[in-house]
């Protein structure tokens, strides 16, 4: 709690009595010297003396501290949003039969009890893994939600002032959302016939249905008014709506995303943004002008080189141009001779081809003649042999006839 001192947990420390401090030597003279010094110091015109109300300062900063667990002052790049010191307040529940609670203390006590209920439900969730829970978490979630709605409908921050708006560093309605999410994660359990055990926690909550109904109707009417205002701004023309929503810059087809995109474009027309854009455009125009000038110089240099090459080529052909007419006359005179030479070459080619043909025919005829001579010699020899054999037979026949 806020009243604890850092050395209360140390052994052999008497925490029941008041704190007393001792110093060596005579303290009376020292205090008188300090008083005289203060009196002489306040007489100076260059020093402004102020008086601090310690009670008011203590009450203003009581039960408040800086949370540095999520502070990040580095220049590193990360997905998480960088935050500085978080201001929080510590609420204390006033004990029974001590002092009557004020409305502010009651409001803070209810917030503290909701925080404790959230932690206890976390413990119940861990216990459900090993044993069956005897409470009905669905009914408890409904009752907690109704209690949170009724507490919100009281609008104590308007009645008691901004001092009651602190919720221990948590936004309004977050506790009910956390409790509802925890309770929805619980499984439905059967009620036990033995009753609630001593370790169980029982909460009794009362609410008025008319408050919830009134809050619901007020929210519906507020949404209708907002929707009517949006319709008045946008209009009922479907063509205009389609033109606005079908913007290629927007990734979604919802009116909210389109409005956000239009707002982002409108922020560019801010004076600071316009000056930055104008400066960038001036720099861009300067770069474009330099590039165009360099491009013109390069094109002019290329054009000059081509013109010089053409001039050199024309000047080199001036000496040849005077000889061209005589050359044409000579070529026309040699045209007939060229035709005759062409005909002669064609005739010579024909003659050479004819000579080759005749040579081939003579070669074939020579081969045929050689074959005939060989066959004729063979035939003559066979005829001579036949004649000799015929004569020998005739002589033999004559001999036989003469005998």
What does this protein structure show overall?
InterPro entries: Dynamitin. Residues 16-46 are annotated as: Disordered. It holds the Pfam family Dynamitin. By secondary structure, this protein is mainly alpha-helical. It has a domain at 206-236. 64% of the residues lie in helices and 2% in strands. The protein contains 12 helices and 2 strands, in the order ααββαααααααααα. It has helices spanning 27-42, 54-61, 103-127, 137-153, 156-160, 174-185, 209-234, 238-245, 255-267, 271-316, 318-321, 324-402; strands spanning 64-67, 86-89. A two-stranded antiparallel ribbon has the order 1-2. α3 runs parallel beside α6 (174-185). The longest helix is centred in the C-terminal third of the chain and has 79 residues, at 324-402.
Largest sheet: 2 strands, antiparallel
Number of strands: 2
Number of helices: 12
Coarse shape: elongated
Family: Belongs to the dynactin subunit 2 family.
Protein name: Dynactin subunit 2
Region (Disordered): 16-46
Subcellular location: Cytoplasm
Topology:
Elements: H1 27-42, H2 54-61, E1 64-67, E2 86-89, H3 103-127, H4 137-153, H5 156-160, H6 174-185, H7 209-234, H8 238-245, H9 255-267, H10 271-316, H11 318-321, H12 324-402
Antiparallel strand pairs: 1-2
Biased composition (Basic and acidic residues): 34-46
Organism: Clytia hemisphaerica
Family: Belongs to the dynactin subunit 2 family.
